[in-house]
Amino acid sequence: MGKRKAAGSIVLNAMTIVITLLIIISSLYFVRDKMLKNAQSLGTALTQSYATEQQAQMRMFEDYLDIGSQYVNELIRSGADDKEIQNWMVDYFKKITKLYGDKVIDPYAVIGGKIIAVTPWEGDDSYEYKDTEWYQMAMADKGKVVFTDTYEDAITKESIITSSIALEDEGAVLAMDIYPSKLQGLRNVLTEEIEGNALYLCDSKGHLIYAKTPWNKPSEKLDEYAHTLFDNVQKGYFASYDDSFKDFNNERRGVYYSQMENGWMIIMTIPFDTLLLGKSNVLMYGLLAVGGILILILLFMFVRDILHSRKIKEADRTVSILSDSFYAIYRVNLKTGMYTTLKNAADMDEKVGMNGTYDHLLQMIETVVEKGTYQEFAFCFSLDSIKQRVKEHIADYGGDYKRRFNDRYKWVNIRTLYNEKISSEEVILCFRDVDVEKRQELQYTLLLQETLETNKKSAEAKETFFSNMSHEMRTPLNAIIGFSKLALESGDMSDKNKEYIKKISFSGQNMLSLINDILELSRLEAGHSRLDYRDFNLEECIHNISGSFEAKAMEDKKDFKVNIDIKNKYIKGDELKVVQILNNLLSNAFKYSDAGDQVLLEVKELEYRQYHKIRFTIKDSGIGMSASFLNHLFEPYARETHFSTKSTIGTGLGMPIVKSLVEQMSGEIDVESKLKEGTTFVVTLPFEVANAQVSEEKKDEKQTENVLQGKKVLLAEDNELNREIATEILQMHDLKVICAENGKEALDIFQSSSPYSFDLILMDMQMPIMDGCEASEKIRSLDRDDARSIPIIAVTANAFSEDVARVLRSGMNAHIAKPIDFNVLQEVMKAHLK
C-alpha cells in the first residue's frame, strides 16, 4: 500500500516535473519568440528613425544646393564673371562649412565649359566632367537636386558622394562633394548605443558609406561584409523576425534595416545573446526567473486589460454622449439592403422597428418629410446614391431638411457616415435636431442680405448724388468759365473790368478743381478708377507738365528748375495718372511757396531687374509743414494751419488722391518737410520699357487747323447759355454750327439732312424729351451710310466713369466733360475728323 502510494507520489511528482519542465520550456520558447519579435520591431523602428534623420540631413544639403543654384542663376543672368561667381560661392559655402566642419564639403560649378571651384583643383583643366555620374544625372533631371552613390574621387582618391543640380545656362551645373568619413552629423546619427550592436550605412549599390562596429577591421573587409549584408537584405533573407547570420566571431546576430527614398539603406545587427538577456547560464537564469516572468507577464496583461477596459468604457461614454445628440441612428447594410435600428425616434418606434428593408425605412421617413423635399431626399439617400458615394470615398455626406414632429415642422440634419477601414459594406444613417441653429443661421443670412442690399442702395445713392452734383455744378461753371474766356478774348473792356473777369475765371477754375478732386476721391474709394497702360514718351510728358508751370513761375517770381536723367524715354504706363500726380504735387509746391523761393522737379530712372523704376522728386523752399501735420497729410480734408504769410488754401483732397494713385500704380511716396524750410516729395513708380517708340509725328498747327475750317457741326445742347458759348467759340474757329435744344430735335435735324451734310455731332447727355445717348443710338440705327460713320462726341456735365461707359455703349466716339476745355475739344474733333 505504501509502495503504491510512493509510486503514485513518484508518478505524480514526475508528472509535475514533466509538466513543470514543459511549462518552463514552452515559456522559454514563448519568451524567446516574443523577445525576437519585439527586437525586430525595435530594430526596425530604430533604423527607420536613423533613416529619417539621415534623409533630413541630406535634404538640408539639397536645400543648400537648391538655394545656391538660384543665386548662381541670378549671377549668370546679371552677367557676372567667373571670379565674381567664385567669390560668391566662397562666401556662401563658408557658412555651410561652419555648420558641418572643415573639409566636409567641396563645392564647385561648371559654367561655360569651365570648372569654378571654391578650392581650386589640381588638374581640373583636363578633368572630363561630362563623363561623370554627377554631371550626367544633373543633366538628365534638370532643375532637381540629385545625389550620386559613393565613389572614389578622381583627384583626392577619397570616398565621396556628390550632390548636383543643373543651372539655367546651357550645360552649367552646380555641384558639391560630400566626404561621409568627415561628416560629424552622420556620425551623430549612427551612435545609438546597444550592447554589441553594429550599424552600417550603404548606398543604393551596397557600397559602405559609414559604419560603427565592435570590430577593428580594415575598411575593405568591412565594405565587403556590408555589401554581403546589403545583398542578403535585398534577397529577403532577413524578412522574418528570427532570421539571423554569423558574424566575424561566429556569433549569431539579428538583422534590422530600413531603406531611404534615394535607395540608401541603414542596417543594424544585434547579437542574439544580447537580445536573449545574456549568454551565460541562460537556462538556469530562465528557470529561476520563469515564475517572476510569468507573474510580470500576467501583471502586464492584467494592467493592459484594465487599461483597455477603461478605454472601452471611455469610448462607450463618448459614443453615448455623441448618440444623445442624434434622435435616430440606423446601421445600413449596402450589400443586403437591410437596416438595423441603433436608436429610434419616439414617433417611429412602431413604424420602423428594430430592423427591416432600407426601402421600408425610406417609406416611413417619407411620411414625416416636408412635401416638396422628399423627391430630392429619396434620390440623395437611395441605396444607389450611397453606394456611389462609398465608391468615391465620401465618408461624410448630408444636409438639412424640414421634418414633422407631431403637428410641427422642425429643421433636422441627416448624415451618412462610413469608415472603409472598418467596413465598406455598411454606413451609419443618423438624424439630429438642428432647428434652433438653422433658424439662427437663416435669420443671420437674411440680416446679411438686408445689410448688403442696404449697402448697395447706399452706394448707389452716393453715386447718384455725386453724379447729380457733378452735372448741376459743371453746367453753370461751363457758362462762367466760357463767358469769362469770351469776354477776355473780346478785348473790348477796361483793364479794371478785365481784372474782374480774370478773378471770376480763376474762381470758376478753383471750383472746377474742387469738383474734380471730390469726384476723383469718390472714384478711388469705390474702386472705379482703372489704370490705362499705354506706351508714351516720358520726357515729352515731363516737358508738357513743366511747361504749364513755367509761366506760373515767371508770374509769381519763383525759381523753377527741371532736371531729367532717364535712359529710356519711351515707357509703358498710365500717362494721365502720372500727369495727375505731378500736377497735384507741383501745384502744392507753387501754392505753398513765396516769391523768390525755389521749386525743383527732378526725374531719374532707376534700373531694377526687368522693371525700371522712375523716381520723381518735387522739392520747394516754401513754408513747409509741421511734424505733427505730416502724420495726417494723406487724410481727406486735412489741411495745415499755422501762422504764415499765406492763408490755408485748398480742400485737403489733393494729397489723398495722389497717395491713392501712387498705391494703385504699385509705387511709393515719401515726404520730408520742416516749417519755414520747405517740403520734398519723392514718388517712385515702376514702369516697363516700351517695345516700340511712341510716334512723334505731328502735323504743324497750320495744317491741323485746316482740318476744322469750314466743317459743319450739329450741336445738341438744352442749356441756352452753354449753347451760346459753344456756338460762339466754334464759329470763332470757322466751323458752321446748327443747334438743337434736345436729342429728339437733333435726331430730326440729322434725319432730314442730306447724307454727309454734317461732319460732326456734339451731343449733350442730359436733355429733355430725348437724352443724348438715346439720340445717338437712334442716329446710328438710321438706314444711311453717314449715320454709322459720322463722329459723335459727348459734351456733358456727367463726368463719372459709368457715364463715359454709357456714352461709348450708345455709339458715341468720345467723351468731353464740362466745363469744356476748348483746346481739348479741338484736339478731339481734329482726331476724329482726320
Automatic annotation (TrEMBL):
The modification 4-aspartylphosphate is found at D764. Residues 712-833 form the Response regulatory domain. It comes from the Bacteria. It is a multi-pass membrane protein. GO terms for cellular component: plasma membrane. Its EC number is 2.7.13.3. GO terms for molecular function: histidine phosphotransfer kinase activity; phosphorelay sensor kinase activity. It is found in: Cell membrane. Residues 468-689 form the Histidine kinase domain. The chain crosses the membrane at residues 6-31, 284-303. Keywords: Cell membrane, Kinase, Membrane, Phosphoprotein, Transferase, Transmembrane, Transmembrane helix, Two-component regulatory system. PANTHER family: HISKA (PTHR43047:SF66), TWO-COMPONENT HISTIDINE PROTEIN KINASE (PTHR43047). This is histidine kinase. It comes from Amedibacterium intestinale.
